[in-house]
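Quarterly update from the structural biology core.
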Amino acid sequence: MTLEMLVSAALMDYNPTEQAYILKAIEEDTLPKTQRLHDGVMKVMEAFDAYEPTVEGYAGFKVDRNTVSKKKAEYKDDRNVGRVVRSGSGDSMLITGKKADGRYIVVGKKGEKSARDAADLGVTTKEEVVGIDIDDLHQEMLEGLKQARANVGASKCWDGYKASGTKNKGGKDVPNCVKEAEKGNDKFINKLSDSGLFTGEELQKMGEME
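Predicted structure, tokenized:
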């Protein structure tokens, strides 16, 4: 299940105007005054957390953009610095520099720092071969929110879905999107269930959306 689908599922009981208001409030970091819209904001934020547990700081890391830019400039001859890679356990780590012995300095999502050999990170010194640049990752997160807003009342189906007739949404006919293939989304549903913000009916509908 993509982030767009997860957000749309969280807002399935809100009309298009309410959805747009909720997503705009999240983008502007404000809270609506009405309880219904406030609950909508909390549901979307819980959906974000289910998709990516940590989204604070810059691209989910407890660093600021200027610090990252300075590190990339300091190690401009090594394009691995400033990239996000995954450890063997699957945890994301940001490469922020190098020690005198050649090991890379990495920072985890919780701010923990350590030194790792290039081989441990799956990178080749001075070559951009793995991971994603943190600036690109941060932009992807921002674009995900913008796209989720744009998809409110969208005229086409998500990837992996196909139109099967039409349905009325917000006073206009839109495609009735149904899944093309099965995928597992129990992880997301369980996280959302644990939050206590969603009813059993909402969770069931989300499971059917996959």
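The longest strand covers residues 161-169.
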